[in-house]
Specification:
heterodimer; A: 66 residues; mainly beta; N-terminal domain of TfIIb; 5-stranded antiparallel beta sheet; 5 strands; 26% strand; globular; B: 304 residues; alpha/beta; Rossmann fold; 7-stranded mixed beta sheet; 38% helix
Chain lengths: 66, 304
């Protein structure tokens, strides 16, 4: 297996929601994160796999909140 | 269950699973057996499914088998441990992610099928998990899962209590709480599944050395849900082996370990599904069908 970051399956992105609020997620391709503004959490994508665990998500900073 | 603290530490659960991932193939016999049985049951359903999920997928065997069966168009697999999800991704047909059964990240009515192979007994809030699964299913979507039920590893539980009592003079149950079949059937119904079915199969494995069972449970990542609490002292462990043999050893010198596997199935409600008729909606009299005379009930006095 190579180290390159494979892209997330687009079909998967279509049906994923925030596990906390069940609200929408925004895909930040640059940071490789799925952002839930409602929950104030960014879920990391590692090795092309979304890590949808609330306790492993990055809390959004003030400047990232909308 | 209100008023009880959560029996399972989800972080520890993920840790145990992640630790089991590397050498999972050496200990996954139970998951292979149950996956086969789940696929047999899926084959009995005369339908094809578009998008399916293998929930708590371990190394992803069930997801791959579901695709091989030709019954499912596409499969997603998720596990709470990244190391397991990574194993599942070895099958390039399967889209993988990391997710917890208790906080599902799937949009409402987005899945046609949810399968789960011996994982949901880990959930602290099984009613909540089932409800989330039902919401993630499209109307007329199908849920099929196997979970450990009460009575699993009863031989080991008994041997551990006897051993601990013998060595330390005190003992407490070491098996984690597991639901019985009737509870599980009720939970399916409460979660709003139509045509819910729950039934039990016992899978018995035999061991030459009882302590090999403990090694297998660790290798499966199942140490914590089935075996609860602090590790047993070494002298207690040795005694467990003796008690196990004395109580359950067969003529061939091997001991049995029983897994009670509950199979749960249900459908997300849809208006086309069969339903019971409304009371009073019959078009023909029962007495006509039976060819007998109908005797009206005597009104008793209770309505006074």
């Amino acid at each position: 297996m190579t180290d390159r970051n494979p892209d997330v399956d687009p079909k998967l992105l279509e049906i994923l929601v925030c596990p906390v609020t069940k609200g929408p997620l925004v895909y930040d391709r640059e940071k490789q994160e799925l952002v839930s503004h409602q929950a104030g959490l960014a879920f990391p994508i590692r090795e092309g796999m979304p890590i949808m665990l609330p306790d492993e998500a990055r809390p959004l900073g003030d400047d990232e909140q909308r | 269950m209100a008023g009880f603290s959560a029996p399972f530490d989800r972080r520890r659960f993920r840790l145990h699973r992640a630790r089991a991932a590397a050498d999972f193939a050496a200990h996954d016999f139970l998951f292979r057996e149950i996956a086969d049985r789940l696929i047999d049951r899926l084959a009995d359903v005369t339908r094809r499914f578009g998008l399916g999920l293998d929930l708590g997928c371990h190394a992803g065997r069930l997801a791959s088998a579901a695709l091989d069966s030709g019954r499912v168009g596409r499969m997603i697999a998720c596990d709470a441990a990244l190391a397991m999800a990574r194993e599942a991704r070895a099958d390039p047909r399967v889209a993988t992610l990391v997710a917890d059964e208790e906080a599902l990240p799937f949009a409402p009515a987005s899945l046609d099928l949810v399968l789960s192979n011996f994982s949901l007994h880990w959930a602290n809030d099984l009613p909540g998990a089932l409800l989330q699964i039902r919401h993630a299913l499209k109307p007329d979507g199908f849920f099929l899962a196997a979970v450990a039920a009460r009575g699993s590893l009863a031989e080991l539980g008994e041997a551990m209590i006897a051993a601990e009592a013998f060595v330390t003079g005190g003992a407490r149950p070491r098996l984690a709480p597991m639901a019985d079949l009737r509870d599980l059937a009720g939970l399916l119904q409460r979660a709003g599944f139509a045509l819910p079915v729950a039934d039990l199969e016992t899978i018995t494995v035999t061991y030459e050395e009882p302590l090999r069972l403990l090694a297998d449970l660790r290798g499966m990542g199942e140490t914590n849900p089935l075996l609860d609490g602090a590790p047993l002292r070494r002298d207690v462990l040795m005694r467990v082996s003796e008690e196990y043999r004395a109580r359950f050893g067969g003529a061939d010198g091997r001991v049995p370990a029983s897994f009670r596997v509950a199979f749960l199935a249900g459908w997300a409600p849809h208006e086309a599904q069969q339903k019971p008729l409304r009371p009073g909606s019959a078009r023909h009299r029962l007495s006509e069908a039976l060819g007998t005379t109908e005797h009206p009930l005597e009104r008793d006095d209770k309505d006074r």
